[in-house]
Amino acid sequence: MSDVVEHKLAVLIDADNASKSDLKAILEEIAKYGTPTIKRAYGDWAAPQLAGWKDILLENGAVPVQQYAYTVGKNATDAAMIIDAMDFLHEGRVDGFVLISSDSDFTPLALRIRESGLKVYGIGERKTPKPFIKACDKFIYVDILRPEAVVIENSAEQSPGKTTPPSVPAPKKPSAKTIAFIAQCIAETSNENGFSSLAPLGSLMSKNRPDFDSRNYGYAKLSTFLRTIDRFEVTLDKHGHPQIRDRQVKS
């Protein structure tokens, strides 16, 4: 786990395209991927729509960066954020970036950072354009980080006869397209017995679809989510690690 802790991240927040109420949950999520050594948020803090942001940023150890809107119709906030990102990239101060925005204007920035061999994590709303999502190594929809986004932690919570309280959102069923996508990833990572280990499977799924996350379907763990799909068999190997097989593929 030490390599995760030492992974230094620059967290750059487009305040024009993010919600201040999500910041605490976002920073808790980011901690899973590394240490946010730089935390900056960009916006015109005199603007009424950004009222309340500065206090939230200070409470969470983030620096508010003032950026005036010099020209109507031009996004000076984006430009300032991109300039700082390129400075951090060339200075070699971090190992990766977290771009918090739902704006496709950051697509070239994400691509440029990845060209330099650094990780890019994106966090934004469901409305985020696909080009920006695909430009990131991993993209997380912010709604799954909110307190009301209840997820099933493990298979024991799905035992027969157990009902879900009315206040808890029902898990979402994956589409046929998603199931086919998972099956393809299993085929590409499976051994001679047709089983795929969870780690390489999850890694390939994220590479092919940066926004794939079992939490989008109401499950905290990928293995728990896969157990709900009849097509897939989830067992434990001799070391107790989950392994997955496509029942439709004969070994």
* Average pLDDT for all residues: 88
What is the tally of helical segments?
Answer: 9
Q: Evaluate the radius of gyration.
A: 20 Å
Strand content: 15-25%
| Shape, principal axes of CA atoms | elongated
Classify the secondary structure makeup into a structural class.
alpha/beta
Query: What is the total tally of β strands?
Result: 9
Order of helices and strands: HEHEHEHEHEHEHEHHEE
Ends apart, CA distance between termini = 35 Å
Binned, the helix content reads: 25-40%
Give the strand order, joined by hyphens, for the main sheet. 3-2-1-4-5-6
- Low-confidence parts, pLDDT < 50 over ≥5 residues? 1-5, 155-160, 163-168
Main pleated sheet? 6 strands, parallel
Short description:
This protein has helices spanning 2-5, 23-30, 53-59, 76-91, 107-115, 130-135, 176-189, 198-208, 222-227, and strands at residues 8-14, 35-43, 63-66, 96-100, 119-124, 138-141, 195-197, 232-236, 242-246. It has 251 residues and is of the alpha/beta class.
Q: Would you give an account of this structure?
A:
The protein has 251 residues and is α/β, with parallel strands linked by helices. 32% of the residues lie in helices and 19% in strands. The protein has 9 helices and 9 strands. The strands form 2 sheets. A 6-stranded parallel β-sheet has the order 3-2-1-4-5-6, with helices on both faces. Strands 7-9-8 form a 3-stranded antiparallel β-sheet. Helix 7 (176-189) packs across helix 8. The protein starts with a helix and ends in a 5-residue tail after the last strand. Residues 1-5, 155-160 and 163-168 have low confidence and may be disordered.
